[in-house]
Amino acid sequence: MRVLAAMSGGVDSAVAAARAVDAGHDVTGVHLALSRAGGTLRAGSRGCCTVEDALDARRAADRLGIPFYVWDFSERFRDDVVEDFVSEYRAGRTPNPCMRCNERIKFAAVLEKALDLGFDAVCTGHYALVREGRDGLELHRAHDAAKDQSYVLGVLTAGQLAHTLFPLGETPSKALVRAEAEARGLSVASKPDSHDICFIPDGDTRGWLAERVGAERGQILDQSGEVVGDHDGAHAFTVGQRRGLRLGVPAADGKPRFVLEVRPVSNTVVVGPKEALATSEIAGARFSWAGAPALAAGEESACDVQIRAHADPVPARARLVDEHDGARVVVRPDIPLDGVAPGQTAVLYRGTRVLGQFTIDRTVSAAPVGV
User: I need a surface site. Which of 186, 190, 341, 342 has the fewest CB within 10 A?
Assistant: First the structure.
């Protein structure tokens, strides 16, 4: 099988490519250039897809004896991921750029180009599993729960799963991957993991957004509408945030207050008690299934819902409903979710299997009236 190995320059993708070679596949390595900013080098262990990463990926490919190329996806990445991130924050929503990158770049644009060039599959270093199920291919959690990345892969469709390889999915731990890289003589064996948002390598999301969205002073309100503080731009706040609020008026009960709502049109932020963050229902019109459709219109089913990459899954009931503006997935968790923000991604599971995902566009508070 002809396999295109997406090589980020990290240890995971290098070992995944090596395992694809060991499996007897005809492997070609490719690194994605997602930025045209010259001299963009890693700061500590932050970021990915930098000049340094491209060189590391090339060295790994040379060690494995496979062809290697760099594909320029900077314009597509800018339009589909970076600009989407900015526009979502401008609208008062909290986006997940990793989901958008997997959806629109790594498993859409890259896979489409790979298939056009005659490759049979794309191989990545993600920790997840693709298994044959009763109704076709299914996406499952990785064996290593600490490294499982099935949440950010929840956007994959049945067609994409059919052309995807995750060689690390059954590996019990990241330590074993590093040991294998060391044994193979790969120079990235001890390279630190990347983290934070790759296009904000210094980790200063607030400052980065201020340059692009603008910093305009506004008011912080309590639930009654009373002004309790001010801010330098509503875009810098997310639902559930506690730190950095700079409130000038203490709460009557003396307890901490949290961001409950961001209103971009009026440039205001609403704060209140932690209890007011409890959410009894979430819904979204933008959804997809990771394999066979998990719900039919009007059907309700038990599942688990996860709203952050490293959050614990929560038992829930999900249903697909027809509303005036189209179909929408509606989920009612057995235990109220905490700090849900519009724009977040909810991924549905049944056991280890990923059923699908949706972007949250509506929430219902579980807090009593007046809280």
Answer: 190
Which of 139, 164, 183 delimits the end of a domain? 183
**Residue 50 shares a structural domain with residue 99:** yes
Enumerate the known binding-site residues: 6-13, 32, 125
CA-closest candidate to residue 70, choices 6, 26, 119, 21: 6
Residue ranges for the binding site for ATP? 6-13, 32, 125
Q: pLDDT, tens digit, for every residue of 33-72?
A: 887 654 444 444 444 567 788 999 999 999 999 999 999 9
The amino acid at residue 134 is: R
* pLDDT tens figures, 265-323: 889 999 999 999 999 999 999 999 999 999 988 889 999 999 999 899 999 999 999 88
36/76 Cα distance (integer angstroms): 12
Measuring CA to CA, which residue among 164, 118, 121 is closest to residue 140?
164
Are 337 and 242 part of one and the same domain?
no
pLDDT under 50: residue ranges of the chain: 38-47
User: What is the count of structural domains for the chain?
Assistant: 3
Token couple for 252: 């009557």
Q: Does residue 40 share a domain with residue 172?
A: yes
| Domain boundaries, position 286 | 277-365
